[in-house]
Amino acid sequence: MCGIFGYSGEKECNDLIFEGLKRLEYRGYDSWGIAILNGKIHQYKNIGEIKYDKMLQKLQKGNIGIGHTRWATHGGVTKINAHPHISEVGGFTLVQNGIVENFNELKSSLLKKDVHFVSETDTEVIVRLIELELLKNKSLRQAIITVFKKLKGRNTIALLSNNDKKIYAVRNGSPLVLGIATDGIYIASDTLSFSPATNEAVLLDDFDMVEIGGKNISIFNIESNQFKPVKIKKLKHQFNKIDKGNFKHFMLKEIVDQKETILFATKYLRKELLPLTDSIKKGGRVYVIGAGTAGFSAGQIAYFLRNIANIDAQEVKSYEFEQYISIVKKKDILIAISQSGETADTIEAIEAFKKKGCKIASLVNMYGTTISRLSDFEFYTNSGPEICVASTKVFTAQCAWGYLLTMTLDNRFEEGKKNLSILTKSISQIFLKSRLENIKRVANKLKNKEHAFILGKGENSYIALEGALKIKEISYKHVEGFAAGELKHGVIALIEKGTPVLSIIPSENSRDFNDMISAVEQVKARGALTVGIGNDKSSKREIFDFYINVSQVENVSSIANVIPFQLISYYLSVALGNNIDKPRNLAKSVTVK
Ligand code: F6R
Predict the structure, then answer these.
(1) Which end of the chain is more exposed for a tag (fewer CB within 10 A), N or C?
(2) Are 212 and 88 contained in the same domain?
């Protein structure tokens, strides 16, 4: 969702801000804008894709400026509603990330004072409130502090002042970090956007107000009313290039990256996992939380913990934590799963578990993010940037890390590592040309269907849910995943001649094999088009119209079983001509509730 990027320093920053916004694109946006200071504020705003046009080329050059990607919340997708929003009084312009929850109340009180609005946004309310404070002869600093304290919700703002030649920014909830480079200071919603320039970052806390003038920074916490030392953190990783290589879309590149990323997520040494496993052994129940795809990997991790290491583990959707919070005890442990590390629903759940006194562990892909910083035990999937909005490589990385954690708890760390390396080899086979052609054939079969169903059981029940989400997100087809046992209790009513049913078939010695086969027999008897995903040496191969071969590695092949669904989603959506990397209505980083 909305992204903020700014720069102050020695370099001419128009292109830097443009490139920074491009690197924030993955978060999802529908309009964007840039403001540059040079004598006065010069602004450019547009809707749609971030690209150069004549007007942007003509924008006055300068070495201090801010930019923004907007994901519409209040008011439609128009140039007027795009940020930055410029003031009429006080010579400043402002961008915001978040939602002003008391927007209606604040706006009606301003309307009563005859304040005039240009846009429909909640952001403009902040601008007008600051103007009123300035008219009371307050300094800009004081005006920002007074107004910020009036805002309800998770809001982060950045403001470019012509009078002071400074950037002011205040963070609350929505992410904001500083990048410290030799040439100047970067300010952005994530560390990825300035990663080609520096891996030295200052991670701001809620209510930190930063003032950047030239290359100087000061940080003042408006809640504690105190200046803070500028603590620079060296981030482990720096990404110079984000590109698709020879792939047409980031999604396909990221699916193929899975040949390696499972190993990156599980390169942890036993001793690095021990502080968490010791706490789990001594603690109470383990809650594993996440939302969307991360919610399904949370389910898969809890499955591993229960079924391999006999741990009392319960998955909870981040946005449903309130259902459980009354029974949560101090000795319980929370494991939060998130690609972005900034998902508002997950942050809110973590804060509630923290209040209960629980220890928090997290598994995050992006460095320097809020979720890692709220955690007692920080882990990373180390998958590299995931740019396609639909998560692929990070899902399998999350599950693989959960498997290694489980095997460590079961005192089988080495065996876990060995199985993950066998799994990685088996994943490489999925990308053989002949196998990809087979998957494409299945994708083409779905092209003219309105509905499809995915069945899984036990170790594959979360994989079925994630497989369905993946296809829905990009193809916009109605694909439902469910546990095979559910079929006879209702869903079978939907099966008619030609309905595609894709079933994940575990190895023949699995306790779930017979149940899965009997579910397939039942849908086949009603005319379904049957597709199997699993080892094609299965003795029941003949009941399937199509079969996608995935070698089964004991206890862990569920992780590989999701990849055919990712590929079906990709090939189907390419055939439908959809926007692969930025599907409609979706944002990669869901920083608002
Ligand atoms: C789906 C997808 C989303 C995210 C969800 C949580 O492909 O990417 O469902 O999984 O919004 O995001 P993170 O993992 O950043 O917490």
Answers:
(1) C
(2) yes
